[in-house]
Amino acid sequence: MAADSGLEDIVATTTTICSIENGVLAYRGITIEELAEKARFDEVAYLLLYARFPTRDELARFEMALAEGGRLQPEALDFLKHVPTVAMPMDWLRTVVSAMSFWDPDTGDNSVEANMRKAVRLTGMVSSLVAAFDRLRNGKEPLSPRLDRSLAWNFLYMLKGKEPDEDSVRVFDICLTLHAEHELNASTFAARVTAATLNDMYSSVTSAIGALKGTLHGGANKRVMRMLEKIGDPAKAAEWVKDALARKERIMGFGHRVYKNGDPRAAILKKLSEEMARKTGDMRWYEISCVVDEAVQRAKKILPNVDFYSASVYHYLGIPTDLFTLIFACSRIAGWAAHVNEQLANNRLIRPRAEYTGQWDQHYVPIDQR
After folding, report:
1. Is 182 labeled as catalytic in the residue annotation?
2. 74-99 pLDDT, tens per residue?
3. Spans of all domains in the chain
4. H-state helical runs in 81-233
5. What is the pLDDT of residue 261?
6. Given 106, 134, 173, 256, the catalytic residue
7. Topology agreement, domain 5-217+327-345 and domain 220-316
8. Among residues 42, 293, 307, 339, which one is catalytic?
9. Residue ranges in the chain whose pLDDT is less than 50
10. Which of 43, 135, 191, 294 pairs as cysteine with 39 (C-beta 3.0–4.6 A)?
11. Which superfamily is assigned to 220-316 in CATH?
12. 42 carries an active-site annotation
């Protein structure tokens, strides 16, 4: 056996959900560029879960089911009010998502039909939980989603307590689509490993959220925004990058294990960042991002990934910085659930081996001789 650190380029399974080939990202064979331009996130979530686009009637029923999933039961809401909101946001989300299984009527049912119901329910529920967290920590009552609105519309409404404008909903909808799925990334792999033990949907999703929390996975966009705030001025950005690199600091939001010639999602997010900058009349964060991008490419020949420009987009949308990674979970839940269902449909326990590099021929030493 030969070990490969990080399992880089190791093919662990097959999937029909997502592909990344030659720098092209596609869900069910449809490129991310086409989906971002033409499809709403609710359609994309349906595509990931059911392997096809919904009809008009199916989409209406699906959106209603998402909203119903986000309407938390009174007992669940009461529980949330007793969970400390001083906790780290991702710790809070990981814990409460696991706890929501207490009130799910399908919790003990691992059938295909029950797992699909839980997948839809969780896809609608996570965005409600994230919005509820922010409102609770600010002394406000959580809001319920409207049954006649999309997930993107409902999230912005539940977060801010007022009806969002069409441009913000459209931009946020695209962001959700861009983050919905990404093949066998760390959190998805964690979900599949958990599911492969014939575990339940909630346990699998909880595992995924735990993996997403890490700064090398979902936590990077939050750190990007902190960096932009620290720089503060486009005129200072190039020098800041130069000094940071001289100190051998890592510039967050750059490079990717899979994309060697650029993350296709980053190009879309850059356009959205510029659009929102012009809409809000605040070009600063977009301009700082562009200078940092150019400086890093010049110095390191490394391109931005999905986390880099998503930071300024979320900021322009008025989303608190410490919720950025939770927003990642709001969209990726659809991909996680699709992978859990795919794993269970043709399951084999995921059990890799490790190459032993320790000492051999060791023996027990009695305690009085140590």
Report:
1. no
2. 999 999 999 999 999 999 999 999 99
3. 5-217+327-345, 220-316
4. 89-99, 112-137, 151-160, 166-179, 186-195, 201-212, 220-231
5. 86
6. 256
7. no
8. 307
9. none
10. 43
11. Cytochrome P450-Terp, domain 2 (1.10.230.10)
12. no
